[in-house]
Write a structure and sequence with these properties.
The complex is a heterotrimer. Chain A is mainly α. Chain A is built from seven helices and no strands. Chain A is about 70% helix and about 0% strand. In chain A, helix 2 packs across helix 3, helix 2 runs antiparallel to helix 7 and helix 6 packs across helix 7. Chain B is mainly α. Chain B folds into four domains: about 45 residues, no CATH class; about 40 residues, no CATH class; about 100 residues, no CATH class; about 70 residues, no CATH class. The model of chain B has no long low-confidence stretch (mean pLDDT about 90). Helices cover about 55% and strands about 10% of the residues of chain C. Chain C is an alpha/beta fold. The chains are: A mainly alpha, B mainly alpha, C alpha/beta.
């Protein structure tokens, strides 16, 4: 009886949970077959998601970086930024659509200019790390074990063979082709790892939903390590 | 340049006086809109080559700023003695450039919302197929936008946070949007399971390696793996760190070199179809 | 066998998960090296150190990122470390703010004094560059509208280089952006969803990230190290058996294909 009283939507808090459950079950109804209830909630979801974004975009960004600097702090030069950014919206016009490319060019140019720093900070340290892997025991690395050496040699072999596989500038023949085939096999290990992790991620998302249904709605206590 | 940015920071011509600040600011913003949008008929008179020239110039200058800021050496104290030795003369301009790009980025994100609303408004007005669902979308959009904007304003204490706003936003965000979002993405798990049974076939050496590694990772990294055998997690972690990592690094190198080539092509507007 | 209605498969998976979520069976995790490194790096922090949490997840990855963020915030509070949160995803702004408010209130952490939320920025790369140059004028104000320069938690902080650590909790590829543009003296820790984890091992190997918690199962390992009870444990345990089911069905599907082929060969 206590469970029933706690379960039913007799107050605003419980009603909110029931709304959440209704949303979840409506989406899950697609698994049985396409139906109007799913369509209704799908369109509601898109509308809510689009509507929600106006708060952070409109207030958090525009207020912070445009409205406050101009109207409250008095830095009038910022006034030109939003009209310039509004050129983007001409993308919907057939006649004036090219004007949006001016602003798109700004964004693309900025991203391209930033890439040089990204290249040096993201990729060069990885190259450095690979080149610094010791491949034999020497006085320079007294703590190195044979296990570490084998791992490092394997690392370099796999890296070089996968890079060989991705070399399409010339026709791969003979020993190069054999190395490229090994590279493809090693690449499958990486892709297998990605696939395994992807399955784990998706399962976790579904388990999260079912946990909500059991724990929050049906009040069946789940959990504990 | 450091002197100029210091001047800018110290107000003078760049800052409106406090008296009548709101009025002048409103007038200047209105004037900016008129000026910038009034430029459009002028720009429209340009021939295609002229239009392309403007786009190419803007793209180049935007990229040049960040590239130059990165490549120019730090420590300009020989030329600007009072400057910070850890930066070059372009570094102080990063922060205002950041502000500009955040505003443009926000407007760019709003583009998707604008396009969506435009499409569904058109569906509704023209009574196209399934226009009833478009009404659902538009009503949800308006209601959520109202609550979201009011909620963000209330967080910044610009408007009062009443119980209706609190409860309304909570129901719409916590109990509707979040639940729908989570449910939508959790559907993929069912499809993966169905695909695993119906479509994952071990027909070649490559497929066998992929499947075997996937199974090893799937069992080895979860608690069940340790229960089956203490060696399984060790082997799985070794596969991830010693066999998977170099393959991922090789992909990274390929992506990096390709990305650099593409960045240079985009910066110099050599890529067809963009400008 | 191969032509079974897929709805039966969905039901089998659903029932499997319900059973193992409800089952009292609980298995301890084997702590993986990246999670151990993650834990050790936070243990090295001193009281009063400043940490930036980049929380970029939305409700679509709630089950993986929520346990991670809760455990990370719990650990940081245990070390009496100051932290600020920033988001590059609109929904994440509210999700992470509400989560952090709830978790910090339980432990008596004060907003503004010991933690703050910097809100949402759409363009992360330029935001990081701006924060390195001039953090208060880049962020300007927190979610509550208080100027960053007036927040006690970041009093006197001018640059991101004064932070000790960046922790990226994300389902997107934002950690390469932090690696590319943040100061080299600031350590980076990573909390991806499982999908993004395999690609990050190269950053772990090169030392560009110092530790990693992978999805819900990583959260379980981390909760175990912290000695707390969270959502990671029941999720990871249930994941184990769903994986077993998937592997069984993959093998079953291949067995069915083999049987079909042998049948066809016999008939031929």
């Amino acid at each position: 009886m206590d469970w029933l009283q706690a379960f039913l939507p007799l107050n605003l808090e419980r009603l909110s949970v029931w709304i959440g459950v209704l949303c979840t079950l409506a989406i899950y109804s697609l698994l049985y077959r396409e139906n109007p209830i799913y369509r209704f909630f799908e369109h509601m979801y898109i509308g809510l998601a689009a509507g929600y974004s106006l708060g952070p975009l409109g207030v958090d960004i525009l207020y912070r970086y445009w409205i406050e600097p101009i109207w409250i702090q008095g830095y009038w030069a910022w006034a030109f930024v939003v009209p310039y950014g509004m050129y983007l919206y001409f993308i919907f016009s057939e006649r004036y659509g090219w004007i949006s490319r001016i602003v798109i060019g700004t964004l693309i140019g900025a991203s391209a200019g930033l890439f040089f720093q990204e290249f040096s900070s993201r990729y060069l340290p990885q190259l450095n790390s690979t080149l610094q892997k010791p491949l034999w025991v020497s006085d320079a690395n007294p703590d190195l074990t044979y296990g570490m050496i084998i791992n490092n040699i394997l690392f370099v072999i796999i890296l070089l063979s996968v890079l060989t596989y991705f070399t399409f500038s010339y026709e791969q023949r003979g020993p190069v082709k054999r190395v490229a085939i090994w590279g493809r096999w090693f690449l499958m290990i990486g892709l297998g790892a990605i696939f395994g992790n992807t399955v784990m991620a998706r399962m976790a998302l579904m388990i999260g939903r079912i946990y909500y249904l059991l724990n929050d709605w049906l009040l069946i206590r789940v959990g504990g390590g | 340049m450091g002197v100029l940015t210091n001047l800018m920071a110290q107000q003078t011509i760049w800052r409106l006086p406090e008296e009548s600040r709101v009025l002048f600011a409103t007038l200047i913003v209105a004037g900016a809109f008129v000026l910038i949008l009034g430029l459009i008929p002028v720009l429209q008179t340009l021939p295609p080559r002229g239009r392309r020239a403007i786009i190419v110039t803007v793209t180049f200058l935007a990229g040049l700023f960040f590239a130059a800021e990165f490549f120019l050496p730090v420590d300009w104290t020989a030329i600007f003695p009072k400057d910070d030795p850890k930066r070059n003369f372009l570094t102080p301009a990063i922060q205002p450039a950041q502000n500009v790009l955040q505003i443009i980025g926000a407007l760019a994100l709003g583009l998707g919302t604008f396009g969506l609303v435009r499409l569904h408004l058109r569906n509704t007005v023209q009574r196209r197929a399934q226009w009833g669902y478009s009404i659902v979308l538009l009503v949800s959009f308006v209601v959520m936008a109202t609550f979201s904007i009011l909620n963000t304003l209330a967080e910044k204490k610009i408007v009062e946070r009443g119980p209706m706003l609190e409860r309304g936003f909570s129901i719409l965000f916590d109990y509707t949007l979040i639940q729908l979002d989570a449910a939508m993405f959790s559907l993929v798990a069912f499809y993966i399971f169905s695909a695993a049974y119906r479509a994952f076939r071990i027909r070649s050496v490559e497929a066998s390696i992929l499947m075997f590694t996937a199974m090893l990772v799937m069992i080895g990294v979860v608690p069940l793996g340790a229960q089956i055998s203490p060696a399984l997690p060790t082997i799985a972690n070794w596969v991830l760190a010693q066999l998977n990592a170099p393959a991922q690094r090789a992909i990274e190198f390929g992506v990096g070199i390709g990305g650099l080539a593409m960045a240079i092509r985009l910066w110099l507007s050599l890529e067809r179809g963009v400008t | 066998m191969l032509s079974v209605d897929r709805r039966w498969l969905y039901l089998i998976l659903f029932v499997n998960i319900v059973i193992f979520l409800l089952a009292p069976l609980r298995m301890p995790a084997s702590i993986s090296p990246p999670v151990q490194k993650f834990y050790d790096e936070i243990e090295k922090l001193q009281p009063g150190d400043l940490v930036m949490i980049s929380s970029n997840w939305s409700a679509s990855t709630l089950a993986e990122n929520q346990p991670q963020l809760e455990a990370v915030i719990t650990h940081l509070m245990r070390k009496q470390v100051r932290f600020t949160i920033i988001s590059i995803e609109a929904q994440s702004r509210d999700i992470s703010y509400r989560l952090a408010e709830r978790v910090t209130k339980e432990k008596g952490y004060q907003y503004g004094e010991q933690w703050a939320h910097f809100g949402f920025v759409p363009n992360l790369a330029v935001a990081i560059k701006g924060m390195v140059t001039d953090l208060p004028n880049t962020i300007k104000q927190d979610v509550r509208g208080t100027a960053v320069a007036e927040l006690p938690v970041v009093q006197g902080v001018k640059s991101l280089s004064e932070y000790k650590m960046i922790i990226d909790v994300t389902p997107t590829g934002s950690v390469p952006v932090w690696i590319s543009y943040s100061p080299k003296n600031v350590k980076i820790l990573y909390c991806p969803t499982s999908v993004m984890a395999a690609e990050a091992y190269t950053y772990l190997d090169s030392g560009q990230i110092k530790g990693m918690i992978t999805g819900a199962k990583g959260a379980q390992e981390y909760e175990q190290l912290l000695g707390i009870t969270g959502l990671g444990a029941p999720f990871a345990n249930t994941i184990s058996f769903s994986h077993l089911l998937i592997i069984a069905f993959i093998l079953l599907g291949n067995f069915a294909m083999l049987m079909n082929r042998l049948q066809a060969r016999r008939e031929a």
